[in-house]
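**Reference record**
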Amino acid sequence: MIELPTEKKWSGDGWGQEPRLLFQVKRSPKHAIYRVTNFKTGTTTGYEVFKIHITPKGTQIFDQVTEDNEEKYPTAERFGKTAWFTATIEQAEIIFDRLEKGLAVHDEKDVKNDSVKPKGKKPSFLFPVGDFSTQQLAEANHVTYPAAYMGLKFYLLDGEVKRSKTERIGNGKRATQFYIKTT
């Protein structure tokens, strides 16, 4: 078994994201917490909590075949499904403990009502004009999707942003939630 590294450098997404250093804080056989730091400053920017996915031995990836079972760090598409970004270690520990117990990361009522108050300082965002998705907010502010989502929760709770519509885009199975600035 090839295990996840205890330290990892993420080089950025090619869309303006700064490189990050990730340090394993806690893990179990099924889940892990990594501290995310800015590569240039060393400042902690948050924590990633995720289910560890294993690529089985013999899996073909492009022109190579895996020689052993291999633990994989989540891709961007996994965030919000089996991986989550949080601002604090306390939030990361709560998610980790819920995953270990086989519980949902958030209570369904909390997700629907956006009533889980995020911790930390409200970020200063530039909002796109008109309806926007979390991804569009992230791109406009040069932040990761998880950081945009967590910051958006502040604005939703303060009533400065509201949900405007839900729409399927392309062939995606999941609908995209759109928001609009109210003030």
In short: Residues 145-157 form the longest helix (13 residues).
